[in-house]
Amino acid sequence: MPYTEAFIYEVFRHASYVPFTIPHCTTDNITLNGYFIPKDTCVFINQYQVNHDIDIWGDAEAFRPERSLTLSGHLNKNLTEKVMIFGIGVRRCLGDSFARLEMFVFLTTLLHRLHIENVPEQRLDLSSTFGLTMKPKPFRIKISTLSYDIYNTVKLSSLCHVTELCQLSYFFNITECNRIKNC
Ligand code: HEM
């Protein structure tokens, strides 16, 4: 579970798929960190830069979820709170918690049921196509369903979690969840 959370944080950070916040406008003259910003100036945050600041992340270009785990395997919240993808301040994203929950449920539901792998001889490229949102370059993957035996093992080892997923999966209309509705 901490690794899954660390993985999602690393996706937020590395992909920075919302590279800039929505443009806002200053309502007064203000001085910020020694910089004077006049009233009526358009301002927004370069989230991509925050998430790739080598002073914070070191090897910022590497996709390494482990960076957000402590030696004992817990989430290093002092570090993950520095990942910026939902903006900051009073105009921060209203759907922050909902989006995080949705991503967690979506990802774990897929991983519970599917085996996902690279296709032979394809070199994966983590660089993005720039735009209002950052998009992945085209790629192919091979997806197969987990065998029923493996699936049962997963189910037994995480009953509580599966139950939560089951309830939430109805919300997201994942009909495959019918098979686990008695959990
Ligand atoms: C991973 C998914 C999402 C990301 C990365 C994201 C990111 C952002 C960002 C960067 C902003 C601009 C913040 C700023 O200007 O400082 C924003 C604003 C906003 N987001 Fe999201 N968002 C996501 C999902 C959602 C969802 C699911 C909802 C609604 C259920 C939502 C509702 C809003 C609203 C209403 C605003 C405007 C807030 C305001 O101007 O006061 N977002 N979002």
UniProtKB/TrEMBL annotation:
Superkingdom: Eukaryota
EC class, as a word, reads: oxidoreductase
Q: Which PANTHER family match?
A: CYTOCHROME P450 1A, STEROID 17-ALPHA-HYDROXYLASE/17,20 LYASE
The answer to keyword Metal-binding applying to this record is yes
User: Which keywords accompany this UniProt record?
Assistant: Endoplasmic reticulum, Heme, Iron, Metal-binding, Microsome, Monooxygenase, Oxidoreductase
Cofactor names? heme
Q: What is this protein called?
A: unspecific monooxygenase
The record ties this protein, via Pfam families, to: p450
UniProt GO BP: hormone biosynthetic process; progesterone metabolic process
Positions with a binding annotation for heme: 93
Compartments (UniProt record): Endoplasmic reticulum membrane; Microsome membrane
Chief location bin:
endoplasmic reticulum
> GO CC annotations?
endoplasmic reticulum membrane
Q: Which GO terms describe its molecular function?
A: heme binding; iron ion binding; steroid 17-alpha-monooxygenase activity
What is the protein's species of origin? Sinocyclocheilus rhinocerous
Q: Which InterPro entries match?
A: Cyt_P450 (IPR001128), Cyt_P450_CS (IPR017972), Cyt_P450_E_grp-I (IPR002401), Cyt_P450_sf (IPR036396)
How does the protein's chain sit in the membrane according to the entry? Peripheral membrane protein
